[in-house]
Sequence to fold (194 residues):
Amino acid sequence: MPFTSIFSKSIPGVRSSVQVTQGSVENLNLLEAGDGELAFSLGDTLSAAWNGNADAGFKARYGKLRGVAAIYRNHIQLVVSESSGAKTLLDLKGKRVSVGPQTVRHGVERTRHLWRRRHDLCGLRHTDYLPFGQSAKMIEKGELDATLQSAGLGVDSIRHLSTAVPIRLVAIPKDTVMKIGDPAYLPSVIPTRT
Fold:
């Protein structure tokens, strides 16, 4: 059932319409401009808008925004093929990694930007900006060593990949997460067999 139908049926007398966007950044820009009343956003993108982070696409502080609910936790998942031999972040030096699609108005771009800025991974042999599904297929074929995916747990691309070839999730150390300096990023543990 489309979101519009669920929303309209949940609140009697309310009529809603849905606008298709490129994701979190565009959604928050529309809200701040008064061109929407309710939008979905990744937590880190919301934090960037609230603080006026120009690097993330927000030239000024967005003070009109208010949170309504947290829908699910978004996890930054660093997945490597077992054959890559990578077990830590430092092991990615010289490896081919995809860090998500290069889309300026999407929250994944914010994650990719932080990945490049906060982690000194200049030794990467090659960095691709591929969609999650394409990255997983390339790992399956042996054409890619690792993929960084910012998504909810159980995302299809990783779930499918785990059934196709042996993979490993690489831990991002707690101190690395804390160095980001943004309360939207919290260290967490991904439960076994998720």
Observations:
- The CA atoms of residues 73 and 152 lie 6 Å apart.
- The helical segments are 3-10, 24-32, 43-51, 107-118, 132-141, 156-164, 174-179.
